[in-house]
Design a protein that fits this description.
Blueprint lengths: L6 H28 L1 H9 L13 E2 L5 H17 L1 H12 L5 H42 L8 E2 H19 L1 H10 L5 H6 L1 H15 L4 H6 L1 H28 L13 E3 L4 H14 L3 H16 L1 E3 L1
Parallel strand pairs: 1-2
Antiparallel strand pairs: 3-4
Helix pairs in contact: 1-3, 1-4, 3-6, 5-6, 7-11, 12-13
Length: 305
């Protein structure tokens, strides 16, 4: 039985989703405030040994900067802590509009998104941040007559900007897999024009990534790796779908050019049910209608890849 929702029902569900997100975010902020010392240590730990072997000290240049810095730290940290819950609330809002098989597959997309996001944080925290800070701050240290002074607000912007770009880049496997899996773009084209894709992605990274060319260059490795991994998983998924379609007698999805036509067999159960319906009605026009429907079905089940 299909349940129909009015616009008002959707607005009520949307309001509930936002309230749940705000409540969970508030709880996350409260948790980070309770562990304030550990949170501050987490943010400032990459600065150790970056100032000529000594720790880089952050400075507040305005009277209100310390207050706003703490607010931004706890709001960002609280969001990261409850990020899986936020994804779940969004999925719960969208789930009623999905079919049963789409709901099952979307769960794996959510798991992959959360896993890749936290993997991006680990990669950036233990690898990119120390290397980038030592390189960038080292340029100023090596200049005679200059002293390196980093403000807390500037460091926070660099920190969140770098991790934001990393999280987006690490979602590349999910994006490419979805595009290839649902044939928005043919997987052959994605493989053939991989160099153009790399160039386009690097141009975007150069435009939005904080720091300099070196940081953008360091992001090239995960871009190439994740793009190739996504293509491999997409190819594997398409092959599995071919096997499943063969077992059900639906034909196969070929990976040829866009001019290839695939004939899909009509399900025998649908044929039998149509024949039984014609037999029950006994109408003389049933055969002609059946033929017409069968022809239409055959034509609709021929599609170009």
């Amino acid at each position: 039985m299909t349940t129909h929702f009015s616009i008002w029902d959707h607005l009520v569900d949307l309001k509930k989703m936002f309230l749940r997100i705000l409540l969970s975010w508030s709880i996350g902020i409260g948790a980070t405030i309770a562990f304030r010392e550990k949170v501050m240590w987490f943010y400032t730990n990459p600065l150790k040994g970056t100032n000529g072997g000594e720790d880089t000290i952050l400075h507040f240049m305005k009277v209100s900067e310390a207050m706003f810095f703490n607010m931004k730290i706890h709001m960002f940290s609280g969001f990261v802590v409850v990020f899986p819950l936020i994804i779940f609330f969004v999925w719960k809002f969208v789930a009623p509009a999905l079919r049963s098989n789409e709901r099952k597959s979307s769960i794996w997309y959510i798991i992959a998104t959360i896993f890749l996001s936290f993997f991006a944080i680990i990669y950036g925290y233990y690898y990119m941040m120390p290397v980038a800070l030592r390189f960038l701050l080292g340029i100023g240290i090596n200049l005679s007559g200059f002293t390196v002074s980093v403000t807390a607000s500037n460091y926070f912007s660099f920190f969140t900007g770098l991790f934001g770009v990393l999280i987006l880049i690490f979602q590349l496997p999910v994006l490419v897999y979805t595009i290839a899996r649902f044939r928005v773009v043919k997987i052959e084209l994605l493989k053939k024009h991989r160099k153009e894709v790399y160039f386009g992605l690097m141009a975007i990274v150069f435009a939005v990534a904080p720091g300099d060319v070196m940081i953008s260059g360091m992001l090239l490795v995960p871009i190439i790796v994740f793009y190739e991994v996504a293509l491999s998983f997409a190819s594997f998924g398409l092959k599995r779908e071919d096997k499943r379609r063969r077992k059900k007698g639906l034909g196969t999805v070929l990976e040829g050019s866009s001019k290839d036509v695939v004939d899909i067999k009509i399900n025998k159960d649908l044929k039998n049910s149509a024949a039984e319906a014609c037999g029950d009605t006994g109408s003389s026009s049933c055969s002609s209608v059946g033929v017409s429907n069968t022809t239409t079905t055959d034509n609709n089940n021929k599609f170009h890849l």
